[in-house]
Amino acid sequence: MGVSTAIVLLVAFFAAVNGCPPSDREALLALRSWLKEPYLGIFDSWEGTDCCSNWYGISCDPTTRRVTDVSLRGESEDPILQKTGRSGSGFMSGSINPSICKLDHLTTLIIADWKGISWEIPQCLASLPNLRVLDLIGNSLSGKIPQQIGNLQKLTVLNLADNKLSGEIPSSLVQLSSLKHLDLSNNLLTGEIPANFGNLKMLSRALLSRNQLTGNIPSSIGNMYRLADLDLSLNKLSGRIPEQLGTMRVLSTLNLDSNMIKGEIPSVLLANTGLGILNLSRNALEGNIPDVFGPKSYYMALDLSFNNLKGPVPKSISSAKYIGHLDMSHNHLCGPIPLGSPFDRLEASSFNSNDCLCGNPLKTC
Ligand SMILES: *[C@@H]1O[C@H](CO)[C@@H](O)[C@H](O)[C@H]1NC(C)=O
């Protein structure tokens, strides 16, 4: 064969080894054609045949050369964004085209904090078998969460917060057996939290605040032995606080504030010495505050304000190791505020608007 033929073959060989498959490249170009990013020009780098080298936000498997990561963040410490002097903040509009689903080796899909990306999340994302991270936080996505999301058996991070998603939490979601981090905060989700939510055994953070969720808090949550952070605040949840939440070993932050939760505060919950932040503010909780604090109680913040709690301020609070922020205001508490720590450094605002509390920092009894 001639020299020129050999060169052509050689070039073809290296393109095959170093390039990305044309089908992956086409899928990325189709994705780009539905997005508009006018300020930073991140897509200017999406040129040439090899989408694996120097295409901003794209990474490939070193051996198969298939695209594994699409990682586009509009707000980050990313040096490229910082350099633009827009204080690391970008804007992109358009939509996430279903062509992305042709990247069937994708493990990470991050299209986050671009504010203006709208339309629906492609349902076909639920058929990407290798997906581990799906992060679409901070856009304007609407419509429903993909109904078959539970198919993603390797998914560890699902972050769809700060969008306009509506409809219910798909029942298949509880099948995500690898999921560690779930954030659906600040959307328009309705309906109930699935009763078997506690099936998500690997979950350590469950953030569902600022939606319109109704119904009870599922008691199955008590089975989530890795759950450290549960935020159900600013919804329309009703019913009682399940006793089971009081026996969770690693739960350290529990926010149930601004719902319509009624009944008494379970004693086991306040006595759970792992809890560092507990916010039950702005509900319809009633009865006495359980007098169950002890030397192992360590609360950075304990907010029981704006409920219908009655009776005295529990004396055992002064035996707690530490209580940072304490708020019992706007209830129906009555009687003398106990002496000693932490009461000697709290302000009147912690006790305001009760029926008949007295003593420091309020007026003397
Ligand atoms: C508790 O929740 C209420 C209402 O949602 C909020 O206003 C308050 O700041 C929260 N308390 C703490 C200590 O974060």
Automatic annotation (TrEMBL):
Keyword Cytoplasm found: no
An MF annotation (GO) of this entry: ATP binding
Ranges where the Leucine-rich repeat-containing N-terminal plant-type domain occurs: 22-61
Localisation per UniProt entry: Cell membrane
GO CC annotation: plasma membrane
Pfam families reported for this sequence: LRR_14, LRRNT_2
Main EC class the enzyme belongs to: transferase
Protein keywords: ATP-binding, Cell membrane, Glycoprotein, Kinase, Leucine-rich repeat, Membrane, Nucleotide-binding, Phosphoprotein, Receptor, Repeat, Signal, Transferase, Transmembrane, Transmembrane helix
Enzyme Commission designation: 2.7.11.1
Protein name in UniProt: non-specific serine/threonine protein kinase
